Amino acid sequence: MTGPIHFDDRYDEPDQLRDQLRRILRHRVLIALGILLGVFGGLALAQQRAHTYTATSEVLVRSTFDQFGAVGVSADNQVSMTTEQQIAGSAAVALRAVRALGRPDGQANDYAARVRVTNPQKSQVLRFEFTAAGPERSARGANAFAEAYLADRKSRSQATVLRATQALDQQIAVLNQQLANDTAPAKTAAQSQLYTLQKRVLDIKSRDIDAGDVVRRAVAPALPVGPGMRTLLGLGLVCGLLLGIVLAWVRSSLDNRIRSVGEVQGALGAPVLGILPDEGRPGGALLTVGRTEGLRAEAYRALAFRVRQVAGSDGPGQVLVVAPRHSDIAEEVAANLAAALADEGGEVLLMDAAPDTSDLAARLPLMPYEAPTLEEAFLPAGSVLVDADVTGRFAFSSGGGSAPRTRVIGSADRDRRLPGDSDTTTVVVAGPFLTDADALAVAQRVDGVLVVAGLDGTRRDDLRQVEELIGCAGARLLGAVLDAGRPRRRLRGLRRRPKYRPVSHAGASAMELPVQDNTLTVSRR
Description:
By secondary structure, the protein is α/β, with parallel strands linked by helices. The protein folds into 2 domains: 53-225, Bacterial polysaccharide co-polymerase-like, CATH 3.30.1890; 261-282 and 295-494, P-loop containing nucleotide triphosphate hydrolases (Rossmann fold, 3-Layer(aba) Sandwich), CATH 3.40.50. The chain contains 14 helices and 14 strands.
């Protein structure tokens, strides 16, 4: 017996990164959808930013830290810019700004949210950036906040001056009262103290309490805020591409259908013996080998060669062709495999083990019944030849002439071979392996099982379950056939086919499949 066949295709790459990339690129629709979402998002953002403008004004803050008695303190340390930055963005300053703009007091919070106050590093400058729906409105808002901050800071300085002078005025009033009642020696000391306090009050009131200066007035901006249309479109394109790749990756991770030879081999644990290409068949003809020429017919001939190679020197013997859930795929593969095996020379019998739900007999070009010759002695009772242009002989039998199909084959029948002599290659087709209990029983009586899987249609979990059941039953799994010509195609196996009924009209050649014993009988005129 020869070693296992490793069927290779364009998906079989040792590089896992390339394989993952191919999985992602299969979902091009999701990638395109992500790109469209990104582009539309960029357009929406550009449309929104097109009506938003930001104007900037700057204020130089004067030092007022202990301005009434600071000695030996540098100007840089006489003001806390962090504190002033917080005050500039406070609700009190926003209230002054909305009043200066003639707006209601209730809009103070809204205006406070639209202004941004920053302090350039190592400077005593406050920068006001105000955002509005128009260029003129943004300039007026930035200037209003700068002036409102200066007015607020000046009012705080005036309040400090008032508090300081009020305390000194009270002391001066007390000294004046003492001077009116004291004697001459005491008046001299009181007058000196009174002079000092009056000088202090004069110094306080004579100091400049201006909060600062506007060093840059805001002007109406010519362009809206943020990046331009091209930048936003490019950014949206990149973000959309990333979104599409993520969606495609998630979809490929959740996708359970087989997409390549490697996935079939990994799920089934057996080699892929053939790949059937997508080739249109006019009229839905079942039989390809011997009747038409093309890539699909050549693929069936290559499949027959590999089946013989895997089976060994004794020949394929009895081969069961099954699909996990849709039996019509298996019917086509079984019929063409039988024709291809017969074309290599030899006697081949195609047996339908599930005639109740199969229309295989109606789809095959059966020849009119004639009395069997000595060369046709290999045919079991009730079988008929198939009209296929092949070198060898190709016959068809329904149910194998065995017990009624209405019962499941029991344990006593498992060791009994199906009809056919040792020189005959028997290709058996059964119902869906995972839904037909008899298919597993038939698998125990044949020499090997060939599983048919549809590209982009068969689930990996189904193949794993098939491999597990075949292993538990002690059957031999030869390999798999990958049909690449049925992507997402509605299969006829999804609907139950009607049972065959005898042909009632007399005088014509007829073929009937009784429902009771499912033995193929051929009557002729």
